[in-house]
Amino acid sequence: MRHWDLNTSLGRLQQSTAQMLEHWRASKDRWDDATRNEFGEKFITPVRPMVVSVVASLHQLAETLEKARRAVDDPDNTTESVL
Predict the structure, then answer these.
(1) Which residues contact 29 (CB under 8 A, 6 or more apart)?
(2) For residue 53, which of 7, 13, 20, 3 has the smallest C-alpha distance?
(3) Cα(73)–Cα(77) distance, rounded to whole angstroms?
(4) pTM of the shown model
(5) Nearest CA to 17 among 54, 69, 72?
(6) How far apart are CA 8 and CA 2, in angstroms?
(7) Helix (H/G/I), strand (E/B), else coil: 70
(8) Distance (Å, rounded) from C-alpha 24 to C-alpha 65?
(9) What is the pLDDT of residues 6-40, one digit of tens each?
């Protein structure tokens, strides 16, 4: 695995987020009051957009790193800009 191969980590982040949200939904059967609602709004609701943003940024980083790797492997290739 290359040091900059982020696919495994991205997959784990997405899977962990999905599991966390599923556990949160399931917890409503045992915990359903104003404190849960406040906790959800403060800590749970922001998670999904943050993860989506992180995943998009890491995909972009992975593409840039792959271009850099190709440039290092073939320094005579001047047709592709790294940045």
Answers:
(1) none
(2) 13
(3) 9
(4) 0.72
(5) 54
(6) 11
(7) helix
(8) 35
(9) 888 888 999 999 999 999 999 999 999 999 999 99
